[in-house]
Amino acid sequence: MATRIAPSADVSAEAQIGEGSSIWHLAQVREHAVIGESCVIGRGAYIGEGVTMGRNCKVQNYALVYEPATLADGVFIGPAVTLTNDHFPRAINPDGTIKSASDWEPVGVDIAEGASIGARAVCVAPVRIGAWATVAAGAVVTRDVPDHALVAGVPARRIGWVGRAGEPLVAEPGGDGAPRWRCPVTQTLYEESDTTIREVTH
Question: Residue 7 CA to chain centroid, in angstroms?
Fold first, then answer.
């Protein structure tokens, strides 16, 4: 498949764009960013310098993905999401001089395979979003999110579990062991384990 870059997009010649990816109008992809195969970068989205993105990711309109964020395969970033990169943001130093690149150390958001970040959510770096987790629209994530967790609110807290299909899991009745949950779409069975869940394979 051919790579598609809209004429109004600003894509650095030093960025790597995977085969079959689409970068739409007014999007900006900075130097040394690595975009995997078959990704979609929506209108007005910003991909920072050195950001890495796996295959089959979707970054929706006007999302801001600041370096050094890393996105694994199949990550969904909703409209107007912000991934931050500074512990203690300031425009100036204590002496009033303007901050330069050498005056601070960027920290990133790490998003694992298949995770989804809902519209207008903010992920405050440094933080990790686990595989197949879902961050609800408008949430503010200030701490790590376990695999398969569904988090919402300000600050975000876990309100349930989700499977690979993205729908909330349903509690399985009965049983004396660890709580079990089933995906209503795939019928996959999960079992709680420590602070996350795992698929039951037997």
Answer: 26
Over the stretch 146-180, which tens digit does the pLDDT of each residue have? 999 999 999 999 999 999 999 999 998 866 678 99
Question: What's the CA gap between 107 and 128, in Å, rounded?
Answer: 11
pLDDT at 88 (0 to 100): 87
**Structure-token pair, residue 86:** 């500074």
Structure tokens at 14: 């030093």
DSSP assignment string, 20-65? T-EE-TT-EE-TT-EE-TT-EE-TT-EE-TT-EE-TT-EE-TT-EE
Pair 143, 125: CB distance under 8 Å: no
Hey, which residues does 65 pair with through a beta bridge? 47, 83
Q: List the chain residues with pLDDT less than 50.
A: none
CATH class of 4-162: mainly beta
Match 């629209």 to its residue by tokens: 137
- Domain positions in the chain are 4-162, 164-201
Q: Which residues contact 149 (CB under 8 A, 6 or more apart)?
A: 130, 133, 134, 158, 160, 161, 162, 196
